[in-house]
Amino acid sequence: MFTGYAYVFKYEYEWDIPTKDIVVLIKGVNQSINVGIDIVRPPQENISEECRYLDNAIYSEYLPTGRGEIRIFFTGLKESESLLEKLKYTLISNFDKTISLDKITTSTANPIVILFSKAGPGMSMGKTEPLKGEYTFVIKIEGEFKEQPQTQLVIVGSCYGWLGTDKYGRDIFVGILWGSHIALVMGVTYAFAVTFIGLLYGSISGYFGGKVDYIMQRIVEIMYSIPAFAFVILLVYTFKTMYGGISIWVIIGVYIIFGWPYMSMVIRSMAMQIKAQPYIEAAKALGASTARILFRHVMPQMIPYSFAMMVLTIPNAIMIEAALNVLGLGNPWIPSWGRILASAIDEGTLTAWWWYVPPGLMIALTGITFIFIGNALETILNPKLKRL
Fold it and tell me: Among the three residues 124, 156, 188, which one is the final residue of a domain in this structure?
């Protein structure tokens, strides 16, 4: 059945620079429809009310894409010509006598700039002040619909941040800043948890020795032999299929479970050396309990080395999150560096270098920074590593 719908959108324009483009997005369309767009400009002093109304500033028949969508760009060829013609005979012919109407074309004038400019001499070239206030867009669609289509009005800005924007107009620099916070929180949390568990487990295993050490080391070997990344991919895919997604903290938690064995093996070897020291034997002779010896004499000796190893572990979590996002298994609602990289890859924007180079550089630089810090701490804490 032939039906008509009208949608009203209001836009408060308060900028000194006009918008770059205006896009009308219509979803849920299966065949060609007629679309008409009326525009009402804000009131202006000494300008009659009739000149505010641009009826059918754009009117044409449109065919939907394969996804049942219609996108109308005001800067499109026929849309731009239609809007400019309406502006010429409604505003320019009455208020701008500096140029003849036949010389005003889409190659010499920008209809969007004229739309957001005050009526007066020079408006055809965008030389008048911007007309600030409330603009009303009335989108009228006519055709045969199975259900009411969804319609959106998108105002494309003209300003962008230091690192540009993605295809949705989002500032990439802001995403990089948010991503740094997320990367550091995840990295430090993962590294601290892995270091703490490895320090405690390795100290107990190395200090007690014997059967306790044997059993604990077999557990470490089993955990160490499991391919953690493959397990996490399977887990994330399962949760994404069944529940629609999984929290990044659950992923980090799973990686913590598989990440501490290496740390515990290093700590164990150090604990076995420390327990043979004379001051440990003296503490035993004085009747110190096992817990006191562990927490007062053994573990404090290994904390500086553990801290150096913790710093070296921080980049692991950042790389895990980035890798999962690139594989399409990350959380799309977390603005992380990996998410920015993944969105750039999904859109195939190989020419938009500002979209994928900054997050890639930040991941690399952050990892290199912590590696340098960790190596420096190792050199300071272990004099044998110092070079002449």
Answer: 156
